[in-house]
Every structure is written in structure tokens, then in C-alpha cells.
Amino acid sequence: MSKWKPIESAPKDTEVLLYAGKYIGMYLGKLRKGRYYSEPSPDSVVWRDAGGRFGTPTHWIELPKPPKEEQ
Q: What domain range includes position 15?
């Protein structure tokens, strides 16, 4: 697995794992309209934690490849 990278280097067109601080944690998201929205719905609101705080990601990492299916 690769290392965490600064959010400024995140891809603009693909879903990645985002880190938004110890109280917000990690979530899957994709950049839309200048903000990182949670997936999978393109109509999702900006991700929030249980306390209603918005997640402003500071770092990102690529998603790992899925396991190979045994045949």
C-alpha cells in the first residue's frame, strides 16, 4: 500500500480514501465542485461526523486493489 499524500496532490476524477483529522477520521470521497463528497451517491452531501462537523481532508491514499477471487 502506498503512503498518505497531501490533499493538494489528490486525483480529481477518482474515489480515494481521505483523512480529515482524528475526530473526523477516514472516509471514501471524490472531488466535486471543489469539495470532497462522500461516495457512492453523486448526490451525497459533504461528509460529516456524528457531531455534524464537516470533514475537510488533509491527506489521501489510493484504495488497495481488491483480492483475487479463487476459482
A: 5-61
